[in-house]
Amino acid sequence: MSAFGRGVGVTEVTEQLGMTSARFIRHFSRVVGLTPKRFARVLRFHRVLDVASQGRRIDWARLAVECGYFDQAHLIHEFREFSGMNPTAYRPRSPADSTHVPLVAREISTIPATAGPAR
Predict the structure, then answer these.
(1) d(CA 95, CA 54)
(2) Cα–Cα distance for residue pair 101/34, rounded to 1 Å
(3) Which range, of 41-45, 58-62, 73-77, 94-98, averages the lowest pLDDT?
(4) 3-state secondary structure string, 51-63?
(5) Distance CA 15, CA 10 (A)
(6) How many angstroms separate the CA atoms of 68 and 113, rounded?
(7) pLDDT of residue 110
(8) 3-state SS of the chain: helix, strand, coil percent to 5?
(9) pLDDT tens digits along 57-91
(10) Cα–Cα 20 to 30 A to 36, which of 4, 7, 95, 104?
(11) How far apart are CA 72 and CA 61, in angstroms?
(12) What is the pLDDT of residues 27-36, one digit of tens each?
């Protein structure tokens, strides 16, 4: 788990542990509750939130590369998938609460009632 926090890829972690990919995925999923890839994606997204919540002007293309995304479009796609909003619309409740954003009634009414599970 700490290797994922440092940005090490799933394949490299699996090889370092000397496990087959299938065995590692099953074990990791059972212990953590997410697949290794999903877990790594969530950690990467949190790195973006940590920077974006500081209230400074953000160069999204640069942040994307620094946090391990292929490019800015990749970051935007994943930001929308995890948060339901564009990165430029993100306004945290406070820097200490980077994963909490205030909702207004209009936004709440547009959230689909049958949203499927996250990938």
Answers:
(1) 6
(2) 24
(3) 94-98
(4) HHCCCCCCCHHHH
(5) 9
(6) 32
(7) 55
(8) 60, 0, 40
(9) 999 999 999 998 999 999 999 999 998 889 988 88
(10) 95
(11) 5
(12) 999 999 999 9
DSSP 70-110: SSHHHHHHHHHHHHSS-GGG---S-GGGTT-----HHHHHT
Quote the pLDDT of residue 1. 81
Average pLDDT, integer, range 90-106: 71
Query: Residue 72: CA atoms inside 13 Å, Cβ hemisphere, count?
Result: 9
- Amino acid (1-letter code) at residue 60: W
What token pair was written down for 37? Answer: 């890839």
Please state the pTM of the whole predicted model: 0.75
Q: Which amino acid is at 94?
A: S
Name the residue type at position 55.
Answer: G
Q: How far apart are the first and last CA of the chain?
A: 19
- Contacts of 73-81 with C-beta under 8 Å, sequence gap 24+, read 75/48, 78/41, 78/44, 78/45, 79/45, 79/48, 81/118, 81/119
